[in-house]
Structure formats: structure tokens, C-alpha cells
What does this fold into?
Amino acid sequence: MDLSASVLGVPVITANATIGSATAPPGGGTDTTTGLAVTIPGAVGVTASGTVLEVSATRGPTASSANSDIAELALGILGIPVVAADLITAEVNCPQSGTPTADTNVVGLTLFGAPAVLVPNTPGVTASAAVVVPGLTEASLTVTLTAVEETTADTAAAVAVLATVRLTGSVVGGQVIDIPVGTVILAEANCERPLAPTSPTATPTQPSASPTETPTASPTQPSASPTVTPTASPSPTQPTQSPTASPYPTRHPHLPVTGDSGSSLWWTLGLGTGMVTLGTGAVLAVRRSRRMTGA
It folds into this structure.
């Protein structure tokens, strides 16, 4: 609970305490407390009594759960009884596989001495009662009681009794004041679904084949530079020979020329002799033929 109110600078209500709250431990395991007396140390204008029968919370690999049970609770503010109940319980369960649940139950609940029935997740029940507060006239305490049962895909929360308190009245001079005093939670439980166990990653027997990569074609070797037949550079113009005629007669390539080597001279003489002999033979043959004809 967290209650606080001041009138003309003077605290009239002060209370800060937890009455029956259980939350599944984040690190796993179980936390349990039983048989605690309800007390509010250092409170001003607030009294409380009763017994916390059990506050327990468990978190394991397959489920998370919590519950809170309070018996014979009596809460008074500014000298009047406000909330009382024979038994107040809140319970939640968050299985690793399944739907989280939240449940509340209140037996013998009264508000300002009048019986009250709470339906979870509704506006609840509201009542007011006159109180005496120094410095206020027509002071009144207004209290609203609700119950909460909430679940999500992974969590659950339950509050058996949530009391919201307001103080109203008029100060000297007629100014009306409305002070939100605070809230009181009676029997609360919360849980969260355990994470699914992580399957160990199997070590492959054979190393996975690396994805085949198509080798990049080696760059084509540069083709041989095309042979360029250099264009013959025009030779520098040879100096033109003087047209003066040679003093020697031009030699014919097929006729022996007097003055050539001695072998050429003898070859010429032999050729001439052969021709004379052949001619003589031919003349004699003709003469013989005529003689024979004449005879």
C-alpha cells in the first residue's frame, strides 16, 4: 500500500507497506513465506491487522506459478474500519505449454462495514464515509474496491482486492479540496511463461560442403598484336643517273662478244666448224641424188 495525504501542510495519512504480494522469481526456484502478521510500521492515520497465510512463487523449466493468501484482514483509515475480509486469495499459473491463468477469491468482504462482492475486471464497488480531520469540515473518505485478473500469451497477473482512496472536504474559508490518498493492494500474484528449452545444435559429421562457386573465367590473354606490315617508307630518291651514254657498247645476253673470255672464243669456233661440216654433207647428198636420177 502507498497512502499519503496532508491538510494545511500537516500529514494526516501516511502508509507504505506490502500485504501479500508474490512474484515468481526470475532466476528459477521457489520462494515461500508463511504465517506473517500484517503490520504497517510508521503509519499515520492507518491501521491494519491480519495474517498472511502464505506467499509462494515458483519458477521451473515447465511452469511458473505464484499465490498469495491473507486471512482475517482488517484495514482502518482515519479511525474508521474501511476494508475487512475473512479470506483473500490470488493465484496465477504460467505453463511453458498452455494458456496462462489468473484467479482471485474473496470471502466475507465488507466496505465501511457493508458487504461487498467484487467481479474481476469491472469498475468495482465504491462507497464513502464521513471522517474527522483537523482543519477540514465535511471531510469524507471515498473508497473504490476492484479485482483484477489479467492474462497475455506469456504472463498472468491477479489482484484480489485493489482499494483506491480519496479524501475530500473544505478548509477554513470554504475552499473544497479533493486529495487522491493512494492505493492499497491486498493479495497479489504474478508469473511469466518459462522460455522453451533450446535444442542443442547437432554437430554435422561431415563438414557442410561449401557452396559451389563457378570459377570466374580467367581474363582472356591479350591476343597477339596484329602484325602490321609497315608500309615501306619511300626510299629517299636515289640521285638520277646522268643520261650520258656509256662509252662501251651494250652487251646482248645471248651473243658472245669479242673480247670475252678464251673459252667463249673456242666455243664459237667449234660451233662454226660443225655448221660448215653439216652444210658440206648436205650438198654432197643432194648431188648424189641428182646423179642417180639422171642416170
About this structure: The first strand starts at residue 2 and ends at 7. DSSP finds one helix and 14 strands in the chain. Residues 210-269 have pLDDT under 50 and may be disordered.
